[in-house]
Known about the structure:
Elements: H1 5-18, H2 20-57, E1 62-66, H3 72-77, H4 89-96, E2 101-107, E3 109-110, E4 114-116, E5 130-134, E6 147-152, E7 160-164, H5 165-171, E8 178-182, E9 189-200, E10 209-213, H6 215-222, E11 231-236, H7 242-249, E12 257-261, H8 262-309, H9 311-319, H10 324-363, H11 377-404, H12 407-410, H13 419-445, H14 462-479, H15 481-484, H16 486-500, H17 502-513, H18 515-553, E13 558-561, H19 571-576, E14 582-595, E15 607-614, H20 618-621, E16 626-629, E17 637-641, H21 642-648, E18 658-659, E19 665-666, E20 669-674, E21 683-686, H22 687-692, E22 701-706, H23 712-722, E23 730-732, H24 734-777, H25 779-787, H26 792-828, H27 840-866, H28 870-875
Parallel strand pairs: 5-10, 7-9, 15-21, 17-20
Antiparallel strand pairs: 1-11, 1-12, 2-11, 3-5, 4-8, 6-9, 7-10, 8-9, 13-22, 13-23, 14-15, 14-18, 14-22, 16-20, 17-21, 18-19
Helix pairs in contact: 1-10, 2-8, 2-10, 2-11, 2-24, 8-11, 8-18, 8-24, 10-11, 13-14, 13-26, 14-18, 14-26, 16-17, 16-26, 17-26, 18-24, 18-26, 18-27, 24-27, 26-27
Amino acid sequence: MRNGGGGVLRLTLRNLAAHKVRLLMSTLAIVLGVAFLAGVLTFSHGLDRTFSGIISGSTPDAQVRPANSASAAEAAARPGAGSEAMLEPEAIERLRTLPEIARADGVVQGTGLYVLDTEDKLVSSSGAPTLAFNHTGSRNLLGEPMLELEEGSWPKTEKELVLDGATAERAGYRVGDSVTLIAPQGETRRKVTLTGTAAFNGGGTAGAQLLVFSTAGAQNLFTEGKDVYAAVSLTAAPGVSQKELVEAANTVVPDGFEAVTGDKVVAESEDAIGDFLDVISVFLIVFAVIAVIVGAFIIVNTFSILIAQRSRQLALLRALGASRRQVTASVLFEALVMSLIAATIGVLAGWGLAHGLAAAFRQAGLEIASDVLVLTPRTIWISYAVGVLVTLAAALLPSRRAAKVPPVAAMREDTQPPARSTALRTSAGLVLLAAGLGLAAMPRIGIPEISLPGGFEVPTSPALWVGVGAGVSILSVAWISAFLGRPVLAALRTLSELAFGMTGKLAGQNAMRDPRRTGATASALMIGLALVSLIGVLAASMNASVSDVVEEEFKPDLIVQSPTYTPFPASIGDEMEKVEGVATVSRAQVAQAVLGKVDLQNPKKNEPAFLFGVDEHMSRIYDLDALEGSDDVKPGQVLVTEETAKEHKWQLGDRIDLTFRSGRQLQPQISGIIAETQVTGDITVRIEDLVEAKVPREDASLSILLARGADPAVVHERLDKLVADRPVVAVQDKEEFAESIKGQVNQLLYMIYGLLALAIVIAVIGIVNTLGLSVIERTREIGLLRAIGLSRGQLRRMITLESVTIAVLGAVLGLALGVLFGVLLRDALRDDLTSLWVPLDQLAAFLAVAVAVGVLAALVPAIRAGRQDVLKAIATE
């Protein structure tokens, strides 16, 4: 067969056709890994397309805005970033007289507006911004209307409103209904009539709430009824370029304002939103990579078993003249066919998964249009490349092992690897494991500062070192699981024998018959459970740290904040000050500025500063640790944390430059350097200074001290009653406040568990595959056991116990690794996670899940084994 390569390939195809079930089971791991990857790539592309469509569809040819300001996108996305720099109607009229301008539309916009549903509950956007502005009919860069009316008509009076369709549906409103709003100033609770629903042209809303008013209605809400405007949208006359439009507009715009091109606004907006989109994409891709890695372990194990079962067939090929290269090629060709079939199914399944991800994010408030979730050529070729290359790489080692076995040796039934190779494998794995543990321990020992050629410095992030060490260690344990798992398998065999007698002993012996195979099968589950338990330790430690921080730093009797952690009208605090039993109300406001002057040509060089505004009562309620100076900040002064002062080389008495979106600049003096705290931010200023900088007045939280002798429960009830018709805020005591934060942590935890569940599913498929192939391999042995008296029930129990043994081995190794690196990672983050907590109840639940996984995985193989004809099984060679 030296020249019969085609014959070997034809034989391979016949083998695949003859074992369709085996082919299906072998490809499932690849299918799921590729499906997750393709789904994530499709979803990420759709996410990018959605926001790109919104940005380009809602941007005019040019825009007039406050000079020396942040981009409009940043201002809309961040609390406290608004501006009170306003344009008079005369300025807009001057723009309209220019021949380069076809139309100039004044824009009125604001923040702090909320929608209540038909049951008087807050309609949450789950973190997406609420965009409230006037309808002008402006055109976008494509010459189309910026907004598309879906139903009804545009607002014409002060008491009319248009919502986006999703918000109207969640709130239970229809066109013509009366809508309840919570306004940022004046009368907080207002009623308006819903006249229609609308969306951005070309992109939906991406989860944002759209509140569109008439110009008079928006001015009534945001400018106290004054006929002034925050910006102007410019539409170019025919034949006029954006550059010419801006140059003409800048000749008449008033001082403190500037005209910028639509392309510049688009670029700024995409930069502002780009980091957010990247975080989501990378977050999901990490889980896709985990699924692919787990699938690779299953593929390696599957091919190892298949080659062991076909050793006589391969030996016969060698005896007939097939070369080692032809044998290796036949195995790799089989892997190639499997990978192409699996990748094709995976890509199609990934498209469906992308729609599932979009639906999940839609529930979280991020709306992705279905028509942008398409399979792009980039997604298809990346998915195929990963599916094919990972499968071929995983099959390479088993194929080379098959080709190296001489024909005579391969004819023997003993297919175990030689002891020397196992020893070398174990030695290499132990060295890598020690290296991984050493890397993970470096943050505690001391991270060295290493400079590499070319000026590249090795990162010194403690969490990164622990993460790299954990990755190396987990893969090393998977590599030598046959060695590390032997004591566990021996203990499980003893327990099985004690609990189930001879059936349990047989199951334990079967699991120990080929420790490498058992370890490889358990490794897939081990990786998933290691990550799950690591995250569990971190989440439990975070919740414990929250309890400690609240216990130590929570000084007020009550705190008031929005359930969605967004600003709320300052008038609520004014009313609470008048409630009987309330002695002091301390207000806090969050705002944004830029350190130094704004670089309009290179916006990315601007360093954003998040400011925490406080009033005169803050120092009476909270005890800040002043390392230098005083913790009592006054107007014109600023407190900075020690870490922030070191980063910027600030000293007590220095003045820092802050530039706000309004164009106003402040130079407060550092009056105190304080220790890190959860009470304030890195830079703390007085609210009076924010007012001077024209930042719209709104509160982020209220800290309340009760009058001496007041009953906390009674005052709590009074405050609850006060805001009952304005559910934009919640009144909480210390315990309620801690639980609200823990609820956010747990929500993220459950989402991560859900994403890691795919790795567990792939591991289950691996156990099913291994047991199924093992039953085929042991057909004659099973027949003999049945012949000497083993019942079908005992046979099924034996296979189930074998499956449970594999699953528990993976769980024991995974939980041990997860807890170890969870503890090390918590230690690396000890400045933020002050307490360590190992959730023993969750770990016990994970172990129970592993047992359930073992039972579930054994169902099909056990049933198939029980149905075998005894005489035919004995006659099988």
